[in-house]
Amino acid sequence: MSAFLDKMRRRAGRYLDVRPADVRPARGVLSLSFDDIPASAWTEAGPILAQHGVKATYYVCGGLSGGRNLDLPQFEVEHLQALHEAGHEVGCHTYEHVSTLTLSPAQLDASLARNAAWVAERLDGHEMQTFAYPFGDCALGSKAVIDKRFLCGRGVRDGINAGRSDRNLLQAIGLESRRLPGYDMEALVAETRASNGWLIAYGHDVSDTPTPYGCCPEDIDRLIRLAKAADLDIQPVAAAWRMATA
């Protein structure tokens, strides 16, 4: 029964309290993002991003720093500071990496405030501008909280953002080994270009033997090359949001 109720609550968050935004960039846009920030999302993905001269968005949970998640080492503060100094966006993913389905709006707001303070203390007052839902779980009551604090929120529902979009539950595709075989990446990039849309990709760990939630280095390299060949603009989420909704 609990699983059924959670499914219904996810549907409510997806389809109700839509806060519409008109997403119409001058040309197609790609944003790359990494959730949780396993250490390899920086140590392995960072050099690929640098090689291509592109910036990504890293969604941080302060509570995961220096720990393990899915039996993988997570980022250290030094990693976070290095990627921030390299010009990548640091966004919010709650402090505890907790599903919004388990939190009241007040509890969610407290988690966001705690994460904001943790990040600001370590990144010279940096204020996070965008949010990604842990597990992709968007409780209906969470959307107003996200709307108050951030430019936009990103979920995990497959799709390209084009035209009328929910600013607090943007669509995305997963750079995850469990999902990648189901995508026609060339077609997604071509559709993003043709529609002048915004394609957001999210991942986690990066290695030659990724978890089901991670990808290989060549998966990132391939998507960037496809996007460049299609003349997509590659921007972090906050910058892309401003371009797409100007």
UniProtKB/TrEMBL annotation:
Cross-referenced InterPro entries: Glyco_hydro/deAcase_b/a-brl, NODB_dom, Polysacch_Deacetylase
Signal is among the record's keywords: yes
Domain NodB homology stretches: 28-246
Entry coiled-coil feature ranges: none
Pfam family membership, one: Polysacc_deac_1
Keywords on record: Signal
Swiss-Prot/TrEMBL GO biological process terms: carbohydrate metabolic process
SUPFAM superfamilies xref list: Glycoside hydrolase/deacetylase
GO molecular function: hydrolase activity, acting on carbon-nitrogen (but not peptide) bonds
Family: Belongs to the polysaccharide deacetylase family.
Physiological role: Is involved in generating a small heat-stable compound (Nod), an acylated oligomer of N-acetylglucosamine, that stimulates mitosis in various plant protoplasts.
Protein name per UniProt: Chitooligosaccharide deacetylase
Organism: Brevundimonas vesicularis (Pseudomonas vesicularis)
